[in-house]
Amino acid sequence: MTRLRYILLTIGSLAITYLLLRLSVMGVKRELFLFPNAWQFLDPFRLLAAEGPPLVLAVLIHMCFTVMLVYMSMRRARDAGWKSWIGLLATLPLVRLFIFTALAVVPSLRHTSALDVPRAAWLDRLIPVSRMGSAVASILLTILLVLPLGMLNVRVLDEYGLALFIGLPFILGAVSAFLYNHHHARRLAQSIGIALLTVSLTLLAIFLFAMEGLLCLVMAAPIVYFIALAGALVGHALAQRTPGGAPAMMIFILLAPALSGFEAAHPTAKPLFSVITAMRVEASPQAVWNELVAFSRMEEPDELLFNAGISYPVEARIEGTGVGACRYCWFNTGPFVEPITVWDEPHLLAFTVVDDPPPLTELTIYEHIDAPHVDGFFRSRNGQFKLIEGPDGSTLLEGTTWYTHDIWPTWYWRYWSDAILHRIHGRVLEHIKKEAESEVHR
User: Is the pTM for the entire model greater than 0.85?
Assistant: First the structure.
């Protein structure tokens, strides 16, 4: 499959997908001038968090588009002289844009063999010929390139999204592997090693320059390393093919700020998630109710999670009774202010959250660092305690939190936020269980 055919077929498939999605949106909303969310084409997972066409139909449309894109990308990769499995990377959100770019630029293998294109002279001056010198130069140049782009996302655009957590890691892997192969073709394992080392040193620099705390870097590391690995595969392939390699890398670099701006200009509504944690308490619902409405001060936690900086509940008190009362759940970083919306004693206590403290304290070697995501990117919206009496007189206590966060990709960060909330729920429920059961046995 030639470059021109690949580009035309991809654009045609994208146009058909867009048309089908738009018809679906119009069919549901009954409005003519409604359009699919622009990010859905780069990140189909946003369909799971956005209002639009019927979910099953929208997912089916995107699956068909993804299958077509992967098939065409695999054929184009073979035509370019690459391993066909590189086309499979088009399944990854946002990475598919970089894959399309690379395959749209690199010429066919039969054309490459007839060309004698010299390497970029300015890179010859920047990158030493020796293996060690080439490794050091490729790592330093990549870090110096990516760190300012990261600052653009975080400090200027105030965005923690796909451009930051997928676009930049991909560039880290692709650029470092490409530069490392500039003078001599290296083995794929060596290119991957340089890419992963570049990621490690970048994360270390972010920590040492007080841009982020250790805990946040640890949580981001799995997806960053995985995407950087995909970038290394593409960068290595581009480096083995001089014609088209350098132009593709330049486009990659230009795509980073463009994607950041695009993401800032096309924000997606923050999805509302819920986390439910349940625990059996050997006490009556009334005894449990008396403890959960306002519980006594807890002991300091010894869990690694909380000692690493995640905020944890300390005690709760309430002013008034019934709907309209206000509950204050104190964490080590401040209080949650929770006006009561449902008071069904002793079965259901529900509340909204009108103010909440920072969700964590950054673990750092400095006294304090200013990480924007600590303030406002994760918000608790509502909560409730539900008490269900068992046939033996015990109580099933369920704690639920509804929350939003503005950090993408949500399918990845929700794993962390759900796990953390389960542990926070568990700390509260375990304390209520202990106090209620001890009160019964007095």
Answer: yes
